[in-house]
Specification:
Length: 427
């Protein structure tokens, strides 16, 4: 099994190397590009076919940067709407609005702007590349939007957290006589979750069941997430239990829902229950259950999770390491918190901040100041929370000079409001 997996990976790498070589062969010199307009039509057609094939295959391997190379070649020959639409898809994947606009201009120049495939690709590109206003403009220029058009603009609004606008578009789509598919409903579930619309949650669930009783696991995970964010945890658990194949995305949504709604015992229990069923877990799962275990002061459970993370190598993940530091420090075990921090080799700003806060809360000002100096040594810019923790630590120090230095650093990094809040608190 391992040999076959390694063989597959080697094959994929070799394919990518061949595509990279093909990309280089498509990099035309200025002289070659200048001659493009003077070539016979048949030669340009052959070149365009090569470019089409290249864009499609390179896109399949998520090497989107190759599409920009293809775009430069396409602009000097008679391009098709298919090739330009593929490049728009690539620009969407890159978040490259600049190249996307060039492709849009070329579509207009060649008279392909009314092609349905191109129209939908434009909406999708602008939405994913960060320009929702242009995405809406492109959508409004479509004379008769189809389900793909509606899906692109609704998903774009949800992506940019314009939830009310997404809901209005969903209603407009229904009124236009176009019935949603599972992709539409996936966006609608996220939209409903974002606005915490309890009354709409169950309606959407009903539509999902009517549309397809065997809806894919991604949509069913969306149901769990929606109910959790709408604070309907009984419904979330029901949606999870009804899943024929329970996946990690749905499990994380359920555990996070319990944790965020203050049902920490349930969060810990569902993890223990599903762990035996071998659904699996990842860094997000461990981070969330550590937070819940901390809330209920379940130090023994936190230590078991720590052992599990060490066994599987998750202890060197920023999310897990920070949660472990927080769990141990809030349970009063600053020694274990320090050990968890030392094991975490990366020591990023989040982990450093958590450890500084842990020392400050436990009255170990000297240790907190040492770590703050480490933040400076690494060239990391302290955020207001670091400065707040530093000032709290300095409040426990008798050295007046250290307090003054801390004040200077807080002012330097623009955290005057933090300084005022901490001074007021300590006074």
């Amino acid at each position: 099994m391992l040999d076959s997996t390694n063989g597959l990976l080697r094959g994929q790498k070799e394919h990518l190397r061949r595509l990279e070589g093909e990309k280089d062969s498509l990099e035309a010199t200025p002289e070659e590009l200048a001659e493009a307009h003077h070539r016979p039509r048949e030669e340009n057609d052959k070149l365009e076919c090569r470019l089409r094939s290249f864009v499609v295959r390179f896109g399949e391997h998520f090497q989107r940067r190759g599409s920009s190379t293809a775009f430069r070649g396409l602009t000097l020959i008679s391009s098709s709407e298919f090739s330009l639409s593929r490049i728009l898809n690539a620009c969407a994947g890159l978040g490259d609005c600049s190249q996307g606009r060039k492709a849009h201009g070329y579509l207009i120049k060649l008279g392909y702007e009314s092609d349905r495939f191109s129209e939908n690709a434009l909406v999708d590109m602008y939405a994913k590349a960060g320009d929702l206003e242009d995405a809406i403009t492109a959508f409004e220029e479509i004379s008769q939007p189809d389900i793909v058009s509606w899906n692109a603009i609704i998903a774009g609004c949800v992506l940019h957290e314009q939830n009310h606008q997404a809901l209005e578009l969903y209603i407009q789509m229904n009124r236009s006589g176009i019935f949603p598919n599972l992709f539409t409903l996936s966006s609608a579930l996220k939209d409903c979750a974002g606005m915490e619309l309890n009354y709409l949650a169950r309606q959407l669930h009903t539509i999902v069941m009517k549309l397809d009783k065997k809806a894919d696991s991604f949509v069913r995970a969306g149901l769990v997430d929606m109910y959790s964010k709408c604070r309907l945890m009984e419904d979330a658990r029901m949606a999870f239990d009804l899943m024929a194949q329970k996946g990690l995305i749905a499990l994380n949504a359920l555990i996070s829902g319990y944790s965020q709604n203050g049902e920490d015992v349930q969060a810990v229990s569902i993890f223990a229950e599903t762990y035996k069923k071998e659904i699996g877990f990842n860094q997000t799962t461990l981070s969330v259950i550590l937070k819940s275990a901390t809330s209920i002061q379940a130090i023994d459970f936190s230590m078991q999770v720590h052992a599990l993370s060490l066994k599987l190598g998750f202890d060197n993940d920023s999310q897990v390491a920070t949660s472990l530091i927080d769990a141990y420090s809030k349970c009063g075990n600053i020694g274990e918190a320090a050990r968890a921090f030392e094991i975490f080799a990366a020591g990023d700003l989040v982990a450093l901040t958590s450890m500084i806060a842990a020392y400050a809360q436990r009255g170990q000002g000297e240790e907190a100041v040492k770590l703050y100096l480490e933040v400076q040594r690494r060239g990391l810019k302290p955020d207001p929370f670091v400065c707040s923790s530093l000032l709290t630590a300095c409040a426990n120090l008798s050295a007046y000079e250290q307090r003054k230095q801390a004040h200077v650093h807080v002012l330097k990094f623009g955290s005057c409001q933090t300084f005022k809040r901490v001074i007021t608190h300590t006074d």
